[in-house]
Amino acid sequence: MSLLHLSNVAAFYGPSQALFDVSLDLEEGEVLALMGRNGMGKTTTIKVIFRLLKHRSGRVMFDGRDLDPLPSHRAARLGLGLVPEGRRCFANLTVRENLMAAARPGPWDIARVHRFFPRLGERTAQNAASLSGGEQQMLAIGRALMTNPRVLVLDEATEGLAPVVRQEIWAAIARLKSETGLSLIVVDKSLRELSGVADRAVILEKGRSVWSGGFAGLTPEVRDRYLGV
Ligand code: ATP
């Protein structure tokens, strides 16, 4: 059984159906790219994984457990870490306070986060609001690492950042892959960068997982059909 397993998931916002049939598997130590054009259901799928939205049918399993009845804080305790779209750090808390608020026992502590992102160490006493966009993104990743997750999900982690800062975030994702055994799900618009770091991709189209496979299989036809604008 995969570490994380979704099969035939359907989910609604009130009366409106956002997911119709989403299936995906994440293996231990794997980096999975979750792709698809705007509004196809990537963030909604992540919300379902984190129990921020309950699915109406289908199955969500993490580490052999059915996540259906779990409240979201329990899902986090089980080892699911989220770097949400828009980063959402606590603006009026310091870098250190943001990190410590998330701390759970495990190999990642504040010293290790500072080694991983030295800039966070240099800014430990600053309010999160005073950080640059890239630094806030590092803080959002650092905060998720402080929960010592087994699966880390990054939703649009490079969005709205300058190109040089984006490269720093991609480099950090690559280091997470090579230096830790963390399983990752990465949502991003950059196919080129994703193909450099991810082992496999799943493509969503109108609330359905319509394609999955290795990047070698992402032919121009597949890209035009599901990812083109
Ligand atoms: P993007 O790349 O734009 O973030 P996405 O693939 O993450 O897109 P979702 O945000 O999951 O897509 O949206 C899937 C569908 O659900 C869209 O039709 C969207 O309009 C709808 N939707 C998303 N959030 C809500 C909400 N809070 N209430 C109602 N409908 C929503």
Entry keywords:
229 residues, alpha/beta, binds adenosine-5'-triphosphate, four-stranded antiparallel β-sheet, 9 helices, 10 strands, six-stranded mixed β-sheet, 34% helix
Bound molecules: adenosine-5'-triphosphate
Look at the helices and sheets and give the structural class: alpha/beta
Give helix and strand order, one letter per element, not per position.
Answer: EEEHEEHEHHHHEHEHEEH
What is the CA-based Rg, rounded? Answer: 17 Å
Number of strands: 10
Mean pLDDT: 93
Q: State the helix count.
A: 9
Q: Which percent band covers the strand fraction?
A: 25-35%
- Across the major sheet, the strand order is 6-7-8-3-9-10
Cα-to-Cα separation, first versus last residue: 35 Å
Q: Main β-sheet: number of strands, strand sense, barrel status?
A: 6 strands, mixed
Helix content: 25-40%
Keywords: Amino-acid transport, ATP-binding, Nucleotide-binding, Transport
GO molecular function: ATP binding; ATP hydrolysis activity; branched-chain amino acid transmembrane transporter activity
Family: Belongs to the ABC transporter superfamily.
Pfam families: ABC_tran
Overview of the molecule:
Helices cover 34% and strands 27% of the residues. The radius of gyration is 17 Å and the shape is globular. A six-stranded mixed sheet has the order 6-7-8-3-9-10, sandwiched between helices. The relative contact order is 0.19. The protein is α/β, with parallel strands linked by helices and 229 residues long. Bound molecules: adenosine-5'-triphosphate. The site of adenosine-5'-triphosphate (ATP) has 11 residues, from strand 2 and helix 1.
